[in-house]
Automatic annotation (TrEMBL):
It holds the Pfam family RNase_H. It comes from Araneus ventricosus (Orbweaver spider). This is RNase H type-1 domain-containing protein. GO terms for molecular function: nucleic acid binding; RNA-DNA hybrid ribonuclease activity. InterPro entries: RNaseH-like_sf, RNaseH_domain, RNaseH_sf.
Length: 108
């Protein structure tokens, strides 16, 4: 869902208007957002607030596309994501289960 947030931020920042398509290869995320009445987590609500802001100036489409089936732009996105994983990352100490649990609980 981070990619969707980033795409919506890009649209808002560059004030893009008209018809905008966001193609996403995670069916579960698209289905999750489609059940918007049940969304209550912070990230989901953040997405819906951005969509609400854009609704008056854009026609937005969120479309699931199958992954790994030789779709040109999906393959490009996959290669960019792989490239990003090879970039130097700052070392961060691993978190314990309790630290992860506390962070997750704080974000809900």
């Amino acid at each position: 869902m981070i990619a969707i947030v980033m795409a919506l931020d890009f649209v808002l920042e560059h004030q893009l208007f008209g018809e905008i398509w966001i193609l996403y290869d995670s069916r579960s995320v698209v289905q999750y957002l489609d059940n918007w009445r049940d969304v209550s987590d912070r990230r989901g609500m953040n997405i819906f607030n951005k969509l609400k802001t854009l609704a008056s100036s854009c026609i937005l489409h969120l479309q699931w596309i199958p992954s790994h089936v030789n779709l040109k732009y999906n393959d490009i996105a996959d290669s960019l994501a792989k490239e990003g994983t090879t970039m130097p990352q700052a070392y961060v100490e691993p978190l314990t289960y309790l630290e992860l649990y506390s962070r997750r609980k704080a974000n809900c």
